[in-house]
Design goal:
Helix content is about 30%, strand content about 25%. It is of the alpha+beta class. It is elongated and about 75 Å long.
């Protein structure tokens, strides 16, 4: 059933670089934003807790931060990029945006655009994780997959791939890697927080050595059709095209998938992959069912 309740943010005034003229590329100007989001307010209203409601304060802060850092020429571009950003960051079902630029045309109070966007979904509509371990990998991967299944429900699971360490010490044990897919309404930030807790539960200790041995490494590599570039997160994950231990297990579970944004098919990426330093082999004696614990 479509969501009919809405959260409304009206009259956000934010300064940013916006416009096509030379002076507009140097001096910040004010833009006005109205936003609304379809949601279901009943749980929050019933329990009267912010944890059960759409946190519009966080959405407002994210909107302000995004717009202040932007430097687009067109309000159309600002509206489109902001809509994509909010849909992905907060897992919204949809967003309505009105972005206007006061005084842009003489005699007009405001000039702007209105857009309505819904959350994109890939053909499979799934979220993909890359999992790896080279310290007692069967035990750690088994527990991680049990936790994933219990939290979200596994929709797809690759074989285990034994892979050479990339970028770390040469005397490290080989890694076991795999890809799992789930279907959830949780947003990107909720998923990432849960991943950190899962890794910590499995004894993951983060150090400055990004390529060292580890009990468990879980990366969010695809969130449906979301394209996102932030300080500490890029989606699709850049390792998909450069790391054999991500690309080939993902290809196994999603052979017809094309990367959001670039539209590049995984099959084409696999055919072009040529880094012979990265060794990888599928452990056929360990089928995915081995790890459905």
């Amino acid at each position: 059933m479509p969501l009919t309740d809405r959260i409304i943010l009206k009259g956000l005034k934010i300064s940013c670089i916006i416009g096509i003229f030379p002076w507009e590329r140097k001096k910040k100007q004010d833009v006005l934003l109205d936003l609304s989001f379809p949601t279901d307010i009943r749980k929050g209203a019933r329990r009267d807790r912010i944890e059960d409601a759409l946190d519009y304060k966080k959405i407002a802060k994210a909107t302000i931060a995004f717009v202040e850092k932007s430097s687009y020429q067109l309000v159309e571009t600002l509206a489109e990029k902001l809509g994509d950003h909010l849909l992905g960051k907060f897992g919204l079902q949809g967003v309505f945006l009105r972005v206007s630029k006061p005084g842009a045309i003489r005699g007009s109070q405001n000039v702007g655009v209105e857009i309505t966007r819904t959350r994109p979904t890939s053909p499979e509509g799934l979220i993909y994780f890359s999992l790896g371990s080279n310290i007692d990998p069967q035990a750690h991967l088994s527990r991680a997959l049990a936790a994933l299944d219990g939290k979200y429900g596994l929709k797809a699971l690759s074989h285990i791939y034994e892979t050479s360490p990339v970028g770390g010490r040469k005397n490290q044990p080989f890694f076991w890697n795999m890809v799992a897919a789930v279907d959830t309404e949780d947003n990107v930030e909720q998923i990432r927080r849960w991943i950190v807790l899962l890794e910590k539960k499995e004894g993951r200790v983060r150090t400055k050595d990004r390529f060292g041995s580890r009990t468990l490494d879980v990366d969010l590599i695809l969130w449906k059709d979301l394209v996102l570039t932030e300080k500490d997160l890029t989606l699709p994950h850049p390792d998909i095209s450069t790391k054999a231990f991500v690309l080939f297990p993902l290809l196994e579970v999603a052979p017809r998938l094309a990367l959001p944004g670039s539209g590049k098919p995984l099959m084409e990426l696999a055919q072009e992959f040529s880094d012979k330093r990265q060794t990888i082999r599928q452990l056929r004696n360990l089928p995915p069912s081995t790890f459905n614990t």
